[in-house]
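Supplementary notes for students who missed Thursday's class. We covered one full example, reproduced here. Read the sequence, then the structure, then the short commentary at the end.
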Amino acid sequence: MTRRLLIVLLNTDPRNPEELGAPFYHAAVAAAMDYAVDVVCTATAGRLMRKGVAEGIHIKSGHPKTVHDWIREAHDQGARFWACPANLDLFDMTEADLIPECSGMMGAAAMIRDLMEGECRVLTY
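Structure (token representation):
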């Protein structure tokens, strides 16, 4: 039985907050169910790994819970978050700019290797 879930945020745009709840909720639920969960934020979604960005986004207007709160909850359940190295250059960031919940970098080669060789299921958003 597969025990690992890889969530790839590729088409999720932080400018559309309603798109952001499901991936982090799914990550938290899967991690709470004792699955190994890795969340890779790439393309425009990579901005969410920058300090201050997710803290300023609310999925529901007027609700106090931020996207960073959703990320923190999934992380607290055991989900690991990864930034795309290409995003650092694209968005003029360094590793020092990443939120504490980010475990580091996962590049395209490592992600594709895990997809092709690993025992995992994949959800993309």
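Commentary. The chain has a mean pLDDT of 95. Helices lie at 21-32, 67-77, 85-90, 108-117. If anything here is unclear, bring it to office hours.
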